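Notebook entry, structure prediction.
Reason for the run: the old model in the group folder had no record of what sequence produced it. Starting over properly, with the input documented here first.
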Amino acid sequence: MNEERILKVLLAPHISEKAALLADTKDQYVFKVVSTATKSEVKQAVESLFDVQVQSVNMINIKGKRKVFKGRQGQRNGIRKAVVRLASGQEIDFSVAE
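New structure, fully documented this time:
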């Protein structure tokens, strides 16, 4: 996989209460990823960007909600998330700004 694709696979860390609990207890981190991303691409991207050893990757597709606004129906955009489990003893620190 080329360097450009590695930089485009991960969009952002997914920040939620559940994601924080996973990071604290099970060494798992949640990322928003591109809709065409595969498990192997996410694994390579996390390992190269954060210099950690990835144990496994699980992918989740979330459909956008159907909404009605002023009588018109619409649909929000769906997202794809990746739950990345790191090897024991490793962590990713998102609070460090360089």
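Summary: Strands lie at 10-13, 28-33, 54-62, 66-69, 72-75, 79-86.
The old model has been moved to the deprecated folder.
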